[in-house]
Amino acid sequence: MFSGNQVSAWEKRHPIVTGVAAGLVAGAVAGGSERVLDRLVSKKQKRRDRRVREGSAHEVAGPHFVSKLLGRRLDAQEKKRANRAFGVAYGVGWGLIHSGLRKRFPVLRRWGGLPFAIPFFFACDGIIAPALGLSPGLNRVPWQPNAKEMGNHIAWGAAAELVHRLAARVR
Hints:
Layout: H1 9-13, H2 15-38, H3 43-52, H4 57-70, H5 76-104, H6 114-131, H7 143-168
Helix pairs in contact: 2-5, 2-7, 4-5, 6-7
Keywords: Membrane, Transmembrane, Transmembrane helix
Protein name: DUF1440 domain-containing protein
Transmembrane segments: 16-37, 82-101, 113-134
């Protein structure tokens, strides 16, 4: 039986397909975990969060980039479409990155993808989002929203890893 610690022949032949599928499925799973975990963040912590940022990096990224691209503010419907487009692009992009990294560094496949998920959270929410002006640094965001975002990244990593393991069973 395939243990998840190796790359299958199918995955070697179709790495892009597997990476894209993993990223899209993981994005959908993370969207579900977002809705569940958001209920665990207290109203007080949500108010504190809104004082330091408009929304999570994922909530503001799509409209931010599309607004810059078009050179104007977006209406509510355009913001929703921008968020969906960003979610797909984010999933595909990180799915491909995850796929390449797990092939090169097999330790990232262990424990349901946890060795990828934790650095993924710190890279996205701690470095990339603040550098792009999408969110303040982790030290300015209340702990509960940070814990929720880490949980979303863990769900993303576990789902992506599961897709890779399922793909490994395809002959």
